[in-house]
Write a structure and sequence with these properties.
Length: 576
């Protein structure tokens, strides 16, 4: 990691010190919370920090009501980063904080002589864990080097489960810094974009100033070469590579550049401020962002032939966040952008992506940012996304549709509905990561039950032809008895993350038998209703109620068996 990158971190920490009157190690904690948990605002962060001596080894306490977690942070900061290792003793001492929450007597003994701020925050933490059933997560952050075997120390020796104790060493902190620099809209300063004087300029002055004019393709390439990814932070999707559309752009650049202006829809640039310099034939843009036309500009940037021709450009000057968000949305409402693209910058999706990242999962919300593609581009990602499991919000939406709306909707609809008319029903404002992940894990288990099956399924030579759409009905039917069980979602996730091979295999074998019976009921229901096509039958929103009504006894028995298996293996466990 280049030295100047660490200097960027120090500069950000010093800025926080100046603005908030914090010591450097507390400013480091502030930076980490601000970077990792974007939903927390300045006052919330400051109120979470334990200031002063006698903090009992705790630098910050965060109560997250959405994720139902108490997150306790300890920092070990040195200005000369990556010079020395932290020690095993640092980890062991901080791990001892878990013992504070065994009972009130242990807590009172541990917090004796604690300073008032630490006592207030830790009392809130104790109440959250003991009364509200929040889970505890310890987070150790440092600018020191990692020590070999720290994961084994935490999991094998100290007995912490997955996500109960996270360590952010120098490398992981630096990855967070780079993610932050990529993930927010940076200040780009001003840029002089030339335009063609011989073409007319259209100007609109109210309510937002805007200009429409012609720009040489080479001038756009120069701007893209200067700013690269930073020019597209507000776009709803990243560059999609050699898509059909982008191949067409390249072909026009190569074979018919004189008609590029006519063939291309043009681009839209949003900026904080713009001024025309008529004498020198350029427009001065302050903090420009391409909000529509990313594929065009990136295709031009990557073209290796001679650049000729022109492109239509619209510049809009605005600082209203409400207008800017609406503009970005509506500028990208035409095909081939789908509804999922338009929700890629939605605050709910961004929050879920951030929280999943802390847990080691990659949550994919934007086309062009597929995990394999991003990992090749940013190899350091492997230090953050430790699970090598990709969660796509489209998959989550389909699973949520099955349990919240109807399996028929999950089978028949797609992103246009899930991220359109049904979005607010599926992704409610306070949805948590465990509410997204647990149904998806159930669905993965159901799919595993027939994965690679070679035998016939009744009249189907290939079982998946029926079982793929029917899986959403099985998910709905299995979910119903679980949904009444306390904290079932986090317990399912804990089992998925922490169970050993023997326990996991035993659970799967028993669950698979029940899943097979659910499939049998759904198949027999289809045949009994004399619907010639199983797909059309499974796409109806009324089908699940028809199955419940006709096979009430069979489903009731299967639900009891399901609950018994989950109680034996999963629901008995204390959630992490």
């Amino acid at each position: 990691m280049p030295v100047e990158k660490y200097e960027d971190l120090i500069k950000q920490i010093e800025k926080i010190q100046d603005e908030s009157d914090l010591k450097d190690y507390h400013a480091f904690v502030y930076w980490f919370i601000e970077t990792s948990f974007e939903q927390f605002e300045r006052e919330n962060i400051l109120n979470s920090i334990c200031d002063g001596t006698h903090d009992k080894g705790v630098d910050a306490v965060i109560l997250d009501p959405i994720e139902k977690k108490v997150k306790i942070i300890q920092s070990k900061f040195e200005r000369a980063g990556n010079k020395t290792q932290f020690s095993e003793n640092d980890i062991k001492l901080f791990g001892g904080v878990r013992d504070y929450f065994q009972n009130r007597r242990a807590f009172n003994a541990a917090m004796r002589s604690a300073n008032p701020v630490a006592l207030r925050l830790m009392n809130s933490a104790f109440d959250g864990i003991c009364k509200k059933q929040y889970s505890l997560q310890l987070i150790f952050i440092t600018t020191h080097k990692n020590i070999p075997g720290v994961e084994d120390l935490i999991n094998e020796v100290m007995g912490f489960k997955t996500n109960e104790f996270s360590v952010y060493d120098y490398s992981r902190v630096m990855y967070l810094l780079n993610e932050k620099m990529r993930g927010f809209t940076p200040s780009l300063g001003h840029y002089h974009l030339p335009y063609k004087d011989e073409d007319k300029i259209i100007v609109r002055t109210f309510p937002f100033k805007s200009w429409v004019f012609t720009v040489p393709i080479e001038a756009l390439c120069n701007m893209a070469n200067k700013y690269h990814d930073n020019l597209f932070r507000k776009n709803v999707r990243d560059f999609l590579g050699l898509s059909v559309c982008n191949k067409g752009i390249r072909q026009t650049l190569k074979e018919n550049p004189s008609n590029f202006w006519y063939y291309n829809n043009g681009i839209s640039i949003l900026c904080d401020e713009a001024n025309m310099n008529v004498e020198n034939k350029y427009i001065r843009l302050v903090n420009p962002q391409v909000i529509n036309g990313c594929q065009t500009v990136r295709s031009i940037e990557k073209f290796r032939g001679e650049l000729q021709g022109d492109v239509l450009v619209r510049v809009i000057e605005a600082k209203s966040h409400e207008f800017m968000n609406a503009l970005t949305l509506y500028q990208n409402s035409s095909n081939p952008v789908d509804k999922r693209d338009l929700k890629s910058n939605d605050p709910i999706q961004v929050r879920l992506k951030t929280e999943f990242k802390i847990q080691g999962y990659y949550y994919e919300i934007k086309r062009g940012q597929e995990y394999d593609k991003m990992r090749k581009k940013y190899p350091a990602m492997k230090c953050q996304y430790t699970r090598d499991i990709i969660i796509k919000n489209a998959q989550v939406a389909k699973a949520l549709a099955a349990i919240k709306l109807s399996p028929g909707i999950a089978v028949s609809k797609g992103n246009e509905d899930f991220f359109g008319n049904s979005y607010d029903k599926l992704f409610v404002s306070n949805i948590s990561t465990h509410s997204c992940l647990a149904p998806l894990i159930l669905f993965w288990w159901i799919k595993e039950s027939y994965k690679g099956a070679k035998r016939k399924f009744y009249k189907f030579d290939k079982p998946f032809k029926f079982k793929n759409p029917a899986s959403y009905y099985v998910l709905k039917l299995i979910h119903e008895p679980l949904n009444n069980q306390s904290d079932w979602e986090r317990k399912v996730i804990s089992f998925y993350e922490n169970s050993d091979w023997e326990e996991s295999t035993s659970f799967s074998n028993k669950l698979n038998k029940i899943v097979s019976q659910y499939f049998k009921v759904i198949y027999e229901a289809w045949r009994s209703f004399e619907e010639p096509n199983h797909n059309s039958y499974l796409k109806k929103t009324t089908t699940v109620e028809e199955i419940r009504k006709k096979y009430k006894k069979e489903i009731g028995q299967l639900n009891k068996q399901t609950l018994n298996i989950f109680r034996k293996f999963i629901l008995k466990q204390r959630s992490q």
